[in-house]
Amino acid sequence: MGSLRRRVTWTIGFMATLFPAAAIAEVCDKERPFWKPGDDPATAWDELIGLSTLPVSLALLALAGIALTTRNRATFAVAAVLWAGIAFVVAVDRYENALDYVEASALAEGCLGPPHLFIGLAVAICAVMTYGALRPRT
Q1: Lowest-confidence range among 91-95, 99-103, 123-127?
Q2: Residue 5 lies in a domain
Q3: Which residues cross the membrane (predicted)?
């Protein structure tokens, strides 16, 4: 079975290299419409800004602000769970689908950057929200 799998992999790999330019050009148009092929490759800071300005991230930032303002334990707990969820979704989407041709092409072209800083920010906000939910009452 190993030799058959190897031949199939080599065949698919060879066929994928026949027309890479058209596929890569379409990928960046769909993933990052405002990125131009002559621009510098996307960095972790670019990806942090891109992921932080998503509507769901902005809504979670507003929820974290409400939790900090009201000092309600339930709001802290809900915000912590949702921030942990978004960090998990971003991490799984980017790394589990690393073998996906679209993701690999976008990373190779440079229109997608690593999401490390966004995941770190989400985990830090989750930690602050968890501390707010578990802090002793005064």
Answers
A1: 99-103
A2: no
A3: 49-69, 76-95, 115-134
109 neighbors 22 (Cβ within 8 angstroms): no
Give the angle 58-75-85 at the CA atoms, nearest 5°: 55
Residue 62 within a domain: yes
With cut-offs at 50, 70 and 90, classify the pLDDT of residue 7. low
Cα–Cα nearest to 115, from 40, 50, 32, 26: 50
3-state SS class at 91: helix
Token couple for 97: 């689908």
Residue 24 in any domain: the answer is no
Say how far apart CA 134 and CA 130 lie, in whole Å: 6
Q: Which two tokens stand for residue 128?
A: 């602050």
Residue 26 is assigned to a structural domain of this protein: no
